[in-house]
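Quick illustration, no need to memorize.
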Amino acid sequence: MSEASFFTDMIQSITDRGRQLLFSGSRTTQVAAEVDLQTLCEMLLSSRGEASGMAIAAEILGRWGALESEGAQKFLHMLHEKFGPDTTKLDQAIENYRTDKSSSAVIALHQAAEPRRQELLRRLNHAPNGTAKLVRMRQQLLASKEQSAEYHALDADFAHLFGSWFNRGFLTLRPIDWSTPAYILEKIIKYEAVHEIAGWEELRRRLAPADRRCFAFFHPRLADEPLVFVEVALTRSVPRAIGDVLDEDREQINADEATTAVFYSISNCQDGLRGISFGNFLIKQVVDDLRRDLPRLKNFVTLSPVPGFARWLAKARASAADTLLSEAIRETLMLLDDPTWAEDENRVVEVERVLLPLAARYFLIERTPEGRPVDPVARFHLGNGARLERLNFLGDRSTKAMQQAHGLMVNYLYKLDDIVANHEALAQRGEVIASPAVKSLLNQNDQSGSRPFAQIMNSTLGGGRK
């Protein structure tokens, strides 16, 4: 028996014993049925016994799991409304702090400000499979988050706790290969979010060859559920297109011949853990493992999608106020409205001529209101210290990629000596570190033949949008 399964069985045994003690004798069924969820939550917060606490937590999560959509929404609303901070204690702690700024007063203020639901969630986590159920609860919360502002405060509590529970120190990196148990391989097929895996044969092509690697992070309380996984191709050069990596007839090499490790797909597996970042730790750990096992590897790059590019470009085209798109550029971009444009070599040349400078602007200049790169994948890799190395026109001709990015893919380069400096440049100055080739695209003339593209951009945006 594994350590994880032994621990799970022990928790279940304690919970069963607590249920017998809590709802004993003739009261068992009647009491369990009559007590509502809010009362059970109050009972859990006031419970002092571990066994009884586990039993109450299991009862709450069992009832929650059986709720229909409307009931589940009411439960989330109840967590927000009834289990926030104790305002009386908080007001008193604030008054005490105003006259006494000692460390004990600070601690008391901190404790009073914490919403009661944080401790409630901690205690629910003690139930059998409590962690997995709370991850699913947050998944449900995220799906409803935009419906009500109250859910933002509730989600902040989940994110705060999950940030500790899923700390890197608790995660285990495991290689995934063709010998991995089928029930985990099935989840790799299911959770692949970047390049769909059509079935077992395609999965075999991604895992079995000597020049392929896959790694996943696991958590001890979600033992058989990958949290995030990365697929790696070992190559002799940096690929420009996903076909170079995934084509069935590609040339295969021995792992010790490779000089480049290509991270071509990173997939988060648990929607309920969205925003809880461990993908950056995954890449760094995988780089360390690959360097140890394959010392000839010199380059660590990605071949990444650009999921927000087409949406951003469509918004720019729809805006009459966007003076960065000349009439000539707008006319050329109309070719994108024909789904068959990429099948005509002449149209491909015309589109590439205007699309790549616009893509350079998208990465190097455009920012969210918070001053971050607008593309979510770019935020991840650039925030980890990678360099924007190359823009690959029509790097992915799949339907999904054509819809999201007009086929554009990019390479991010992880140069180990520069990671810290690149990260600081973005974090402190908002600067995207890019290769000279990418930067040079900003100096290409716009299609009207007037000022250089970067000059137009600077005059319009005042040197760049923050």
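Residues 25-31, 445-466 have pLDDT under 50 and may be disordered.
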